[in-house]
Specification:
five-stranded antiparallel β-sheet; 1 helix; globular; mainly beta; transit peptide; oxidoreductase; 2 domains; single chain; about 280 residues; metal-binding
Length: about 280
């Protein structure tokens, strides 16, 4: 029946409870990820098990990160294909899509270059955004760095999820997990140097949570980057708190509106924007 919900249960590989991320979907496939970062309490190697007063997440350097690709409507886990990607430590995916008639999957995600410091020495973490290309026909995996800056918590125009897109907006680690600004990357520049095309720094002592992209559905022209990047900004020196709205198409991510907030909004890893129509629908 059209519109019926179909569910399937899959078994992951026989590994200790590693960090398994469900990456964004391409049109006909889904991506999963096995990371060396895992619950340190459950690690089989005693060297990486949690000790009192240490982080609940540890990294086992003996594990090789893997990306898994499975058809969207697979019957079971036997249709999953795994691809090793040594040195690629993904915590957040940004987007993924298919190219070359479905023979290739392209994914954009930050690579945590110092995974051993996850959640314990966050100030030592550096995230390098990469474009990962998986050739399903040959099995080859290639990786292209997109920027040198410490960038994570990336967002895109939500209408582009699962299909090829051009722009992403990332929090600038200053250091992580504090976000001192926002950088815009142009994925079409991959392979031609740094892909940063715009950046806004909030100033000394000012930090934000994850940015979020809001399309201009009222006066917009339909371009992918026609909209606004929004986030909360806290000034640790003065205690001031602002809701900041930036022009996503401007070369400096110009601030076009600010709202002074009466109280502090705590830093958060992730953001969300709810439209007025979505709020109204919850009360119907």
């Amino acid at each position: 029946m059209e519109g019926a919900l179909v569910t399937s249960n899959f078994s992951m590989p026989d590994l200790y409870p590693a960090k398994a991320n469900a990456a964004h979907a391409a049109r006909s496939r889904r991506l999963s990820y096995i990371s060396p970062a895992a619950s340190s309490a459950a690690a089989p190697n005693p060297s990486y098990r949690r000790r009192k007063g240490t982080s609940p997440v540890g990294a086992d350097p003996g594990m090789v990160p893997r990306l898994g690709v499975i058809p969207k409507y697979a019957a079971d886990e036997s249709e999953m294909r795994w691809f090793e990607v040594p040195g690629f430590n993904m915590m957040h995916s940004v987007n993924a899509w298919e190219e070359a008639g479905g023979d290739e999957i392209v994914m954009v995600a930050p690579n945590i270059l110092s995974i051993e410091h996850t959640l314990e020495r966050m100030e030592l973490i550096h995230a390098s955004v990469e474009l990962v290309r998986i050739n399903l026909r040959t099995g080859n995996v290639t990786r292209t760095p997109l920027a040198a800056a410490n960038l994570d918590f990336g967002v895109i125009n939500p209408s582009c999820l699962g299909r090829r897109n051009r722009y992403g907006y990332f929090g600038v680690g200053d250091p992580m997990p504090k976000i001192g600004g926002v950088a815009k990357l142009d994925f079409d520049r991959a392979g031609h140097g740094d892909c940063t095309v715009a950046r806004r720094d909030f100033g000394p002592g000012c930090f934000a949570g994850e940015p979020f992209f809001v399309p201009d559905d009222v006066e917009g022209n339909g371009d992918e980057d026609d909209g606004y990047v929004v986030c909360y900004v806290h000034d640790e020196g003065t205690g001031d708190n602002r809701f900041v709205v930036m022009d996503a198409q401007s070369p400096d991510l110009d601030i076009v509106a600010e709202v002074q907030l009466p109280s502090r909004v705590p830093y958060g890893f992730h953001g969300l924007f709810v439209t007025q129509a979505e709020l109204r629908s919850q009360h119907q």
